[in-house]
Specification:
alpha/beta, eight-stranded parallel beta barrel, two-stranded antiparallel sheet, 10 helices, globular
């Protein structure tokens, strides 16, 4: 077993393969990880065998992913308006659910809660339509550009409104956390669909308004790579502007518009991912978020390459 040290590993990798939490965590431990991120699909049944492991010190929890534990309600899942709801009752419910996630994080000794704060709502999944056009015709095709401009016009027009809503919600959660004396970061995550929030600059605007609060940027590297490819923002250029706000990272690489692959290993590109080494080094919480297709030997190889590159820069 190769000890992965300070690096953590998300349960999204193997949650669909297990019916008991203990088995799921033991498989991750067998890769050499001492810590896990408990993702949003972890339910009370799985927790019943994970919590004793946490209490006995068999596994550490670096972070939990809001909404945690899992609830079966599409209004409050990971792809919803969530903290940006116009409806005040729904927004209050979202605030309460994030506070609940933080309570679990505190109980488990986690450093952060990862949050999908919201989106600019569309009446259809325009992101999947755009990705289909990207794959069939290319980013510079008239077909893609026409639909992209349609998406971007609505997104940019409504973004300030939802940024404000999200900021207000996060402020309420932060005030509660401060009153409780919780030392847990709230990481707003870069997303994988073009209408979802925040972009890097939206994240910066929210963090600027909430300076001194627990709110920071959860920099999902693969998602940001994907949004850069689609044309939403310049990931590498803007990363330097938001690096001071980063509280945690999701480490994975994107092949074209497919995410959650092992860095370096699956792309066979030994240099491009180097752009993100400073962000990984800077982040207090470092979590691999890989898909089930990633094999143990590929995970070991990827981590070895990453550590070698990080060590050579220090």
């Amino acid at each position: 077993m190769w000890d992965k040290g300070e690096f953590s590993f998300s349960t999204c990798w193997n949650i669909k393969r297990h019916t008991t939490g203990r088995e799921m965590i033991e498989e991750i431990k067998s890769l050499g990880f001492r810590q896990v991120e408990l993702n949003y699909n972890v339910n009370d049944t799985l927790l019943s065998t994970i919590e004793p492991m946490i209490e006995r010190g068999e596994i550490g929890v670096s972070s939990v992913h809001n909404v945690f534990p899992y609830i079966a309600d599409k209004d409050y899942d990971t792809d919803s308006v969530l903290l940006g709801f116009d409806d005040e009752e729904k927004r209050k419910r979202s605030v309460d659910l994030l506070i609940r996630s933080m309570e679990y994080a505190v109980r488990y000794g986690a450093k952060a809660v990862v949050v999908h704060p919201g989106e600019v709502p569309f009446d259809r999944n325009i992101d999947s339509e755009l990705k289909a056009l990207y794959r069939e015709f290319g980013k510079d095709s008239p077909e893609y550009r026409q639909l992209w401009d349609e998406m971007l016009e609505r997104r940019e027009r409504l973004s300030p409104r939802y940024t404000q809503r999200i900021t207000e919600s996060l402020e309420k959660v932060s005030e509660h956390a401060v009153r409780q004396g919780w030392q847990v970061a709230i990481g707003i995550e870069t997303r994988a669909r073009c209408y979802q929030m925040p972009t890097l600059m939206e994240a910066k605007a929210i963090c600027d308004k909430l300076q001194g609060s627990p709110v920071g940027l959860w920099y999902d590297i693969g998602h940001a790579m994907m949004m850069d490819r689609m044309g939403l923002y310049d990931n590498v250029k803007e990363l330097s502007l938001v690096k001071p706000y980063i509280c945690g990272v999701h480490i994975h690489e994107t092949l074209e518009l497919s995410d959650h692959w092992c860095p370096y290993v699956h792309s066979k590109d030994m240099t491009y991912f180097d752009h993100f080494l400073d962000a990984i080094d800077y982040a207090k919480v470092k979590v691999y978020e890989l898909k089930a297709a990633c094999q143990p030997e590929e995970i070991h190889e990827s981590h070895g390459l990453l550590i070698g590159k990080l060590n050579s820069r220090r």
